[in-house]
Design goal:
With 137 residues, the chain is mainly α. The protein is 81% helix and 0% strand. The two termini are 28 Å apart.
């Protein structure tokens, strides 16, 4: 495997994933505001809004991590980005599915997604703590 390209691919993957999550989040938020707001119960709509919020926040985080990974090699950041992507897909994805009538057993994925998000941010912190001071590029 070509090791020198791995950081580039990790950064590109994080940027692309973050951008796509932002685009899909915009579409889902618009759908929710114009269609689902009246079709869902108040509780389900709050769950929907939580899913959208988490998707947007972590998509922004992925975009930032993509920029960081493009500037420096860091395996922890690469793993963290993958965990954030998995976390958004599991957390927000399961909530979207639940408010649209999926079986309640799918709700078991929501806390797993949350754990992925927490673990991802902890790895970002660990990467920051172990980073050597370097002059800005």
């Amino acid at each position: 495997m070509n090791q020198p390209n791995r950081p580039y691919h990790a950064g590109r993957r994080a940027l692309v994933a973050g951008a796509l999550l932002m685009a899909v989040g915009c579409a889902i938020a618009a759908l929710g505001a114009h269609t689902l707001r009246n079709a869902l119960s108040a509780d389900d709509y709050r769950v929907f809004l939580t899913a959208v919020l988490f998707q947007f926040l972590h998509a922004l985080g992925l975009l930032c991590m993509g920029v960081l990974l493009a500037r420096r090699t860091d395996r922890l950041l690469s793993i963290a980005a993958d965990l954030l992507l998995a976390g958004v897909l599991l957390f927000s994805g399961s909530l979207y599915a639940l408010v649209n009538g999926a079986p309640h057993s799918l709700g078991a994925l929501t806390p797993l997604g949350g754990l992925c998000l927490i673990a991802g941010w902890c790895l970002v912190a660990a990467a920051g703590l172990r980073a050597r001071d370097a002059p800005p590029a």
